[in-house]
Amino acid sequence: MAKDYYQSNHSDNIDDAYYVTIAYNNTDPEHKISLYPYGKTGYEHYYHDIEGFWRLLYCEPQEGEGDYEDEAGNIFDKSTRWNKSVIDDPS
After folding, report:
1. Which residues contact 18 (CB under 8 A, 6 or more apart)?
2. Closest Cα to residue 21, out of 49, 50, 48, 41?
3. For residue range 11-68, what is the model confidence (pLDDT) as tens digits?
4. What is the rounded (10 degree) CA torsion for 10, 15, 18, 22?
5. Which of 5, 65, 68, 86 has the fewest Cβ atoms nearer than 10 Å?
6. Which of 32, 44, 33, 78 is nearest to 58 (CA)?
7. Beta-sheet strands, E only, within 1-91
């Protein structure tokens, strides 16, 4: 959602607008209502941090067996791809 927010949150085209897209794409199929009728998730102010620091928390799949260590010494769990410090100490 962070990339969608940065791509279209200032769009002049109403069909491309972030808020319209969020409202449309997040509907409850059983009740046919939008989960975010005003197009705001409440996480918009976190998107900058998520975009900047997600690689410290999660890594792309790596070839080979076992856990993966990046250049900074962060160790990622092979099965979940999450940084082991997130699993062991989420605070």
Report:
1. 4, 5, 7, 8, 9, 11, 39
2. 41
3. 666 666 777 888 888 888 888 888 888 888 888 888 878 778 877 888 877 777 788 8
4. 170
5. 65
6. 78
7. 27-28, 33-34, 68-69, 75-76
